[in-house]
TrEMBL record:
Residues 217-226 have a biased composition (Polar residues). This is Siphovirus Gp157 family protein. InterPro entries: Sipho_Gp157. Residues 200-226 are annotated as: Disordered. It comes from the Bacteria. It comes from Aquabacterium olei.
Length: 226
């Protein structure tokens, strides 16, 4: 049996070549064999050997990729665990700060308080909105989002009916509708602060009615540590 033919510059251990190099050499070998005057069985044996090297290298690369994926999965799980741990620690820190703040208020110790390593003081929390009754809130602060679920054909029928101002009751009866109301708390807070400032100034004609269903949260303070 004739020995496989392989150009000398292609004859080297597969482990010394990269996957790209092996692929290039494989394609180059195909071109050389196409022009070479050798028996078909020699061509077959040569291609089989060259392909084997390429497959082995692909296998090695994919094994390396699998190891990296396994490592990424482990690290992702570890990152989630660390994130939960950090959140738990932050919650404990907040609880300790609140505890010290209560004790300082109860004992009447004046702030700022300078200890051996820290300076403690109080800072006013940013104003926030308290929606006490969403139903009474003016519509200009509310946005309603309606989600329609059903078959694509049914959703298309509803869309066309709405565009044509047709009666959609019969169509909607066959669809699942989910409605969600979102409150624009940023705009609400701005207007509540304006109302509070005007009423506090007590200037004639500037006093404004409270916004139904909402109010400013009472002023609160948090402990700061430096």
């Amino acid at each position: 049996m004739n020995a496989p033919v392989k150009p000398e510059h292609l004859a080297r251990p597969a482990h010394t070549a990269t996957l790209y190099q092996l692929a290039d050499e494989y394609m180059e070998g195909l071109a050389i064999l196409a022009d070479a005057d050798v028996p078909p069985e020699v061509v077959f044996d040569t291609l089989e050997g060259m392909q084997g090297e390429l497959v082995d290298k692909v296998d090695a690369v994919m094994a390396y990729a699998a190891n990296l994926q396994a490592l990424a999965t482990v690290r992702k799980a570890e990152a989630e665990r660390l994130a939960k741990s950090a959140k738990s620690l932050e919650s404990k820190v907040e609880g300790l700060h609140t505890y010290v703040q209560i004790i300082l208020a109860r004992t009447g110790i004046k702030l700022p308080l300078v200890t051996g390593r820290f300076t403690l003081n109080l800072a006013k929390n940013p104003p926030s909105t308290d929606v006490v009754d969403e139903g009474k809130l003016p519509s200009l602060y509310k946005t309603e989002t309606v989600t329609l679920s059903g078959s694509p054909g049914l959703c298309e029928q509803v869309r066309m009916a709405l565009e044509q101002s047709s009666d959609t009751f019969g169509i909607l009866a066959r669809a699942a509708i989910d409605s969600k109301v979102t409150v624009d708390k940023k705009a609400l807070l701005t207007d509540l602060k304006t109302v509070a400032a005007a009423n506090e100034a007590k200037q004639p004609g500037d006093a404004r009615d409270a916004i139904p269903g909402a109010r400013l949260q009472p002023t609160s303070y948090r402990l700061t540590v430096k």
